[in-house]
Design a protein that fits this description.
single chain, Arc Repressor Mutant, subunit A, 3-stranded antiparallel β-sheet, 4 helices, 3 strands
Length: 109
């Protein structure tokens, strides 16, 4: 399958969206993005963990260590109130951008 690159800022929006469903660890977040995108988007560790770190520094998410369902220790990430607000802002911007691009790509008159 062809690799799809994320436009800048998109990965953070997708992570926020996944975490809106509840806390999750890094591997789980990547899996959810893959599943929800109908297996089109694949998030690599080299992109995921730096994004999670940036988001935590911005207070969009917080984390804590816990046991996974496989009895392994993992860092679980959770959306903060600031992150919920940011998700709303990002979603609005994305919808406006997608509509504008759709208009440009639409059928010529």
């Amino acid at each position: 399958m062809k690799k799809v690159d994320f436009p800048q800022g998109t990965l953070e929006m997708l992570i926020l969206r996944v975490l809106a469903n509840g806390s999750n660890h890094g591997f789980g977040i990547a899996q959810q993005i893959h599943v929800l995108s109908k297996e089109v988007l694949r998030v690599e560790e080299g992109s995921l963990y730096p994004a999670l770190h940036r988001m935590q520094e911005r207070s969009w998410i917080k984390s804590k260590w816990a046991q996974t369902e496989n009895n392994r220790r993992a860092k679980y990430y959770q959306l903060t109130a600031i992150g919920k607000k940011r998700l709303g802002t990002e979603r609005e911007s994305w919808e406006m951008l997608a509509a504008a691009i759709g208009n440009v790509l639409g059928e010529p008159h």
